[in-house]
Amino acid sequence: MGLGHAFEMNPELKNAFLYEFAQAQLARQIFPNAPLKYMPPTKFKTGNIFRSHIQDALFNIVTVISDQRIHLLGMLTEAIHTPLLADRALAIENARYIATSRGLDVGPQNIVVTPGAKPVLFSALMALVNPGDEVIYPSPGFPIYESLIEWSGAAAVPIRLQEDRQWRFDTDELAALVTDKTRLIILNSPHNPTGGVLTEADMAAIADLARSRDIWILTDEVYSNIVFDGEFVSITRQPGMMDRTIIVEGFSKTYAMTGWRLGYAVCRADLAVHLARIETNVHSCTSAPVQWAGVEALTGPQEAPALMAESFRRRADLITSLLNDIEGVKCQKPGGAFYVMANVSGACQRLELPSAKEFCDKLLLEAGVAILPRTCFGRRLPGEEEYVRFSFATSEELIRAGVQRLKEFVEG
Length: 412
Known about the structure:
This protein is an alpha/beta fold.
């Protein structure tokens, strides 16, 4: 399916795509030959562009892997198709990690390794969902949820995340959305773009609903190691839920290995066979050297991921405090991940701007601050206020400087 058809099905997807394209075009006017993500700081009207829209974790955990040499010199000769279901080293280590972190009885037969975490979302929908089914997903949310559901021919049913509930949804509202056509519920905790975290009570209520209505759960847990208060809670710890749940996990967030493209699914063994069959036809396999990098990440020193999570906690406190000090801006402190979702309704009114989209455009052009409007995370829901997402996966110095520009932009 081409982009044109995808945009017809989901106009907000087109808006998000065009917004990112416009930002890329602005940057390329200054550095026409450089990839956007690797551009040096640029001078644009009021100074260097502060990028708080899309960022990787700025921690060089990969050097830990490199120092171990990850057997690369030897393993690069392993130029073969790696089987998706086998007792390979990475599948074994993934299973050990999941067993330890979630308390689950899983083995390599429950693991499907993929080139990044996104392929798991695709394969799960292809395996479980048919045209005419309904899939409930969090909104605002990671935009691929909505677009993949609609691409599959299913009906995308959003469950509203509520600002006054620390960006959790109401489980009673979730139950009201379930029909006889509901096939799958997508969870994401900690959550992108809001930083919201579901509680143990939330998980228990969702599990009761899934069991009673025979619904599958797809739980995106790629931020599971970046939780600020308490411990990470997975729905798979609820009785009987591992039999109807697919865990999406990866290395990009915990180990700052975004460019390596390494993820995996965890599910019951009979479903893993089908996911692996889809992956074989779409991606063939995940490269052997990248898999060995994953082995080293899991078996090597774990101090760096812990330090990174703690640094994100400090940055969350900092950016929340600074944003709440701006007239017309308010935000909840995130419970995890490295994002905050700020309410800019008052700022939009103050600046006589019709929406967060225009707010972001004007902020970029006049103050050199790049953030994302809510419409980059699925279609708006009725009655919503105006929201923007900040990523705080950057230095505290840059956070202070960027938010100061925002403050001057709003308050004059």
